[in-house]
Fold this protein.
Amino acid sequence: MTNTYLKRYLDPWEELSHINRAFNFRASECRREYPAVNVWLNGDTTLVTAEVPGVKREDLDIAVSGDTVTLKGRRPKEELSDIDTYHRHELREGTFSKSIKLPFNIDADNVNAVYKKGVLSVFLPRLESEKPRNIKINS
Amino acid sequence: MTVEKKEMKKKEVEIEKGIDRISSAMVFTPAVDIIEHTNDIVLIADMPGVDEKSVDLTLEKNLLTIHGHVEIETSDKFKLLISEYGLGDYERTFKLSDEIDRDKIHASVKDGVLKLVLPKAEKAKAKKIPVTGQA
């Protein structure tokens, strides 16, 4: 669902008048897909940020293929001995994988990723050849 | 998806009845693990966006409050299109039992995770009583 809505949302000619609806509907739809992401736009660059606390930098994996970016990672389980007990266990552990489809092909050579404070930021520029071009009109 | 199905949406801090917030900023309750070991109790709190400089711990009587401030860095140049998680600070309060040695609490932050080690006071540690067979 993320994909359809992102595609529609990023397309300026569609859904323009339904911003709020798209927001609300999508938010409730994708609540359970880990990790939660925010998607930002600045010109031709899309920024995907994800909250993945407790995941080490080396355990994060970002793959770009065509118009899709996939975030993968693993958070190790706390090591407990037999006599240790959980009083609260609210944190999630284990592996995750989430794909986000953008409405354009990604320039994979220029993708830039930053990981700090448990927040992953992936900058995804649009492929140069797909950017809109001005067409000269001949008289 | 092998990640356990847990409530994923960040929970906003519940405000006591009769108290209003002045600031419009959101405050979330961080999810925690609390694990009891033989000699200490370890509290692990997920606070993505927080580092060792932006976390505050206060101990008042037996109430330990953790507060983490999140700087929102990207919002200037980038326009937020889709938001699956909210941005804001974290706050949660815990009641410590008497068995915790308040002077030896140790805190560290790594990859947006706060880890508190709360050592048990000497007298609270379980003593192991050796059992010897009859000679």
Observations:
- The longest helix of chain A spans residues 19-29.
